[in-house]
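Risk register update: the risk of archive-format incompatibility is retired. Evidence:
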Amino acid sequence: MAMDASEIERLIKRRIPDAEVTIRDLAGDGDHYAATVLAESFRGKSRVQQHQIVYEALKAEMGGKLHALALQTGTPER
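Archived output:
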């Protein structure tokens, strides 16, 4: 069962309300996505910590509906 990009965005924003989320379907199959997540709340956190926060938001779906996610995180330009 594939996962819709809007559902990925919704789950991320539920955990990180200030996030700017961009999702791309890499293979057109609904299983392989790339996500860019920018959030002011990431400021001062390491890249690993940022990724952990995003993966925590998606943990129920990873390996099931969501097979693969290439992730880029950061803070918005000031």
